Amino acid sequence: MLRSGDRSVRADRVTWNRNSGEILANGRVRFVDENGNQLFSDSVTLTDDFEAGAMENLLLALRQGGRLAAETGSRAADGTVELERAAYTACAVTMVRDDEFFLRIWLDYYGGHLGLENCYVINHGRGDAVAKLAKGANIIGLPGDPHKNFDAKRWRLLNGIMTGLRGYYGHVIVGDVDELVVVDPASGKTLLEFLERRRTNRVFTPLGLEVVQRLDLEDLPITDKVLGPRAHVRLAPHYSKPCVISTATKIARGGHYTQYDQLNAPDNLYLFHLKFCDFAAYQQAMDRRNAVTAEVGVESVAEASIGRHWFAEARGEDRAVFEAFADLDMQEGFDMGPLRRKMHRSWRARGETGYWEFDRPAYQTQYLLPERFVGLI
Predict the structure, then answer these.
(1) pLDDT of residue 120
(2) Could you give the angle at which helices 100-114 and 279-296 cross, rounded to 10 degrees?
(3) What is the pLDDT of residue 59?
(4) 247 pLDDT exceeds 90?
(5) What's the rounded Cα separation, in Å, for the pair 174 and 309?
(6) In angstroms, how far is the first alpha carbon of the chain from the final one?
(7) Which end of the chain has less Cβ packing within 10 Å, N or C?
(8) Which domains does the chain have, with CATH numbers?
(9) Among 236, 222, 217, 206, which Cα is nearest to 366's?
(10) Which of 196, 146, 164 is nearest to 93 (CA)?
(11) Distances (CA, A) of 298 to 143, 290, 293, 309
């Protein structure tokens, strides 16, 4: 490490030109300026008094929060950094209507990992409670009039917002308010660190797991964290959604498919679906959704572009739904590698739709989450 006052540089290799006073740092470079901002780069050129010049493939971590990635950059003598092809690492987008239970969890998770300033909440119906909870995030208020094509309109909007945000962020996470993209703590990386090290111009598909409440084993209410009071997940291929977007593509209604023709399903990347994580919250959410479809005035799923699970006819008996989780076959360990390989083997075009898919069998299995996940959500 080399140091000059409050500035320091660490790299795999550092050379100094005695005649010109130029310092060249190469390989895993970490430069800290006098304000505490950090520059991570493949290479940095410095003057002999540690004024940074040209940089390549860099990440700028600001002391006050926020991170920027860029292909090239330069730092002027006054500390101004000029970047080429730069973007903030990631943001998250969701749309919600009167669903404070899941929104609180969503904001706590993504706000903690990405920063509230990089969270976008579409407030359908302009609910006061949603606006209050999401204070500090970016809130887009929309009229809440019922419509039989609600889901089609919703995903048309989400596609447009995702496309716009890609101009400012390396990765855009798009999903429902009860869905969270999670990195296995065994990787040693946070969500932000994971995405910083991933190439853009692609789509990532996390493996879908549903967090379920085992009524026979888990009777504590969720008042803060989810994982801890809840420790069981069931395999949910339907929720292995291509939801981390960094390329030009279109997401299908429901978010289950895109028109990107390659499958990137990294190890250690999961999508946790929380719909069944709490019995009381489930009942309240289903009551609200049933009320929406009733207000629209359609009698069956076939008459509307709304998810089947929003209709009373598809609901079933709530307690029986939750009690059935105890009957799922408990699996040993937590090895999801074979499941990702099955996704790759069945990867194919979804007919003539332009979308791509993999097999989504209805597994009747459950897992006990390893202790390392406790408190993550």
Answers:
(1) 98
(2) 110
(3) 72
(4) yes
(5) 20
(6) 37
(7) N
(8) 2-85 (2.60.450.10), 89-373 (no CATH)
(9) 236
(10) 164
(11) 20, 11, 7, 14
